[in-house]
Structures are given as C-alpha cells and as structure tokens.
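Each record in this resource describes a single protein on a pair of labelled lines. An example record follows, reproduced without changes.
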Amino acid sequence: MRFCPNLNWKNLFTKSRNFAASFQRASTTSFSSSSAAAMSNLQILKTKLCIIGSGPAAHTAAVYAARAELKPILFEGWMANDIAPGGQLTTTTDVENFPGFPDGILGGELMDRCRQQSERVGTVIYTETVSKVDFSNRPFKVFTDSKVVEADSVVVATGAVAKRLPFVGSGDGPDGFWNRGISACAVCDGAAPIFRNKPLAVIGGGDSAMEEATFLTKYGSEVHIIHRRDSFRASKIMQARVLDNKKIKVIWNSVVVKGYGDENNQRVLGGLRIKNVETGVESDLKVSGLFFAIGHEPATKFLDGQLELDSDGYVVTKPGTTKTSIEGVFAAGDVQDKKYRQAITAAGSGNSHSFTDLTGMISVEASKCNV
C-alpha cells in the first residue's frame, strides 16, 4: 500500500512543528511556559487506529485490527485507575468462566496471553496512561505524558472499576481479604467452592445489589444484604424478589467496619463487624463471602465530555454497534457496558467495533489519495 503524498516524512515533520507551535501559542492563555515547553517535546506518532485500554476488549480489537493490517497503536496505561495493565482481571485469581480453559486460568495470566497475542500480530503497545484526547478534528489526537498520537480512528476500551468500600480487612494487602472472600462480582466469583453452602453478604441497595443477592442464593446457604439506609433505591420489582426470598435477610441502617479471618484459616474471610448507623451498636456477622454491589465507575474522565455519556458516565453507543457520538471513535467493553461486564462479552464487543465501517472509512480515505 502506498501512502498519501501529504503523509510523507517531510510533511509529517512540518505538521509536527506546526502542531508544537500551536501549543506554544496556546500557552499564553492556557498553560504556563514550562507546560508549553513540555508539550513541544512530545513524540508525535501516526496511525490508522489507536486503542486506549488493556483488557479483553482492547486486545481483541488490537488483534482484529493488526490482522487487518491497520497497524494499531495501543496504550495499556501505567496503573491507570490504580489497576495494573490488563484491567480488572489482574485483580482476580481464578477465572473459570472464560471459554478454552477447562481448568480455569489466573486473571493475570489470561491478560498476559492476550497481550502477547496482540504483539505477535503486530500491535505496538506502550505502557503509558492516556491523559487527554482531542476528538474535535481528524486526525484525532491522543495524549500521554511523552507522546501524542494522530489517529484516523480511536477505540476507547478503558473499562470500568468496581467501587469498593474502605474498611479494615477490605484491601488486597496481607491483612486484607480481597479475592480471599471479598469480591465485587457475584457472577464472576459466586460459584467458587469457598462460597458454596456458606453464609454470604452483599453490600448495596440498588438493582445490582438485588441481582447479586438473588444470584448468590443459588450457591450460599443464606445471603445477607447490608444497607446503610432503611429502604432500598432498587426498582420495586427487584425489591419484591429479594424480600420474598426466604434465603435473603436484610440488615438495615448498617455498615461494615471490619472484616476478619476465619477461625480455622486466617487467610480467608470468616466474618464481618457490623455497625448500626443509628444506634452505634456493633455486632458480628459470620460470613464466608462479601460482595460489593455499589456500582462501577467507568474510566471516562479523560474524555473531558467529548463523547456522549449516560447519566452514570458510561459511553453511549448506537444500538447494535460500538459507534459513539463522534464518527470514527468507537467504544468497546465495560466502558460502554453496564449490564454484563464480563470478560467474554468485553472481548466480543472488541471484535465488533464496526470493522466494516472502519475499513470502509479507511478505503474511502485511501481512494482520495489514489492508493
């Protein structure tokens, strides 16, 4: 494939110099002189497709794009949203619901394999966090601290982070029970052997909490919903299902202040210390599992409102596609999916980010340059 004349290195250098100069001019009103100087030193790269993200959606998009000879650039982030490259799966242990691994696979290992596959087919990966984007004109611009990528199209696959409550024992350090009895995904982890026929607890009061609690009744001996208020905010029908379920008990006006280890195995969760917010009285609740169901926070702040978002901050996509409100910008995975939020569904959306439209768009652009 030949490149358009206006994409040769001489013109690229000229555009790069003009681009840097425009930042310097903007510095008189928007930046300090030191910030402008830093901008002018950015490494400028060009690509047909830039992918932002490091989870199943991002790497599936990368594999399809690279095999289509789009030579994608992928930014996997460096502890973006306080999570290592690879996304939420890196915070889990055994993944037993991803096809192809009958004995299960560690979340971190699964994402390492996805990354290796992306690189093998030709994806260029940078372990840098995208700080901002400019979707006002084509080519779109994607910024990190050291680079700016000019891309014909962009796939946003930055995911969403489950909200977690901070209390003693809730973390993933040596004194915490994260992934050792505490989780933020009942569908992902609820069927694990450590939870079967054991008392479990869910924190939350919305539809997600109702769904998680109902789901867990399939595996746990009983399920406690801990809610800091005296009423749920969930829809009436979801509340009715929970309140009519004999295996579910509600602990109203209460919060968790501590998680502690099992008396026979201090490495796994054995119970919770519960505090009534009205009386201040604390009590023990013996459970083997605790699930946060207080929502997710999509990683969309860096977009700075340039894409249409819903009321919860998720990227809005056109039904049946991953097209966003800006032509040429796509969203895949949990950043646009607040219903399923599973690795396999994220991967599925990554391979369907309108490649017919994307390759068609590139063909149109190429025809303008007679290639």
